[in-house]
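Q: Sequence in, structure out?
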Amino acid sequence: MSVDLIRIGVIGAGWFVSRRHLPDLQRCPGARLAALCRRDPEPLARMAEHFGVSATYTDYRRMLDEEPLDAVIIATPHSLHFEHAGAALERGLHVLLEKPMAVRAEDARTLTRLAAEKGKQLVVALNPPYWGHCQLLREWVAGGRLGSLESVDIHWFGSAPHVFGRAPLPANLPGVVPPTLFRGDPGLGGGGFLMDTGSHLISEILWATGLRVTRVRAAMDDPDTDMCAALLMETESGVPCTLTLRGDSAHPQRRLHNVYYGSKATAYAEGMPFRLTLRDAGEPEEVVAEAQMPAVPTPAADFLAAVRGESAPRGTAEHGAAVVAILEAAYRSARSG
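A: Exactly. Output:
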């Protein structure tokens, strides 16, 4: 497919896209930001002025029906992703969808099928397919640098209570407009810190290793709006994976320590900025700083390349749906015990 100019609308023109997708989009040749939609007129006007967009809407249906578009970026509250992505795909538009793809596994699978039926790209903006350290990990695992994979342990500790409405927003928070705090509403967020940040961490395990998870056990402080969660995941190949995360840490810095244990070597991901260390028995330690990691596209650039038919997307709908299935199982486990 060849598209000279890709006309893009945004559903959920708010804090996150103002920091991530829209600045990335402006650096991509052949893309035009054609329309913005959000329900609140005042921040919508601020977004439109900042990004130089004249067409604005407070009703996403009107934008999809009235604006000549080729694609949309969707960055609305998690529980609305299914409705908004489905409406765009039904109208024959390509979709770049923020994570998590949906809050129900069946909804994620439905979107995957719909995109295939319509012949449209549905790209899910989970971070790991667009992180250099995950690309390098994927190469190490696939290339046998670790030997046979034996276990994966993911640990992530950060402090984000402000985006859940549990602390004041920092005065220096980047972005054109402030976040809406939907993450603190279980009806909109679909869960808590696991649903939000944990989506990326589950994605890292799946994307870097190719493992398929078959069973999940989970414990959380509050399954409706968790800030602390621990998961044990069983896989088809018998490789156990654990995930521990906390979103209200009192420590001032984000901390991560992810370990991939193999029969031959162990890989450690730490940061941020990310740093990878490979420790092979009897061999010198290999350390790779983030600046030395493979170059990877942004979600926006990857999406545009997929729409043009230049390459297959990295953040596929199938991968996004697999992450949602694990999330749904984790919350069901935490609630049922």
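Residues 317-336 form the longest helix (20 residues).
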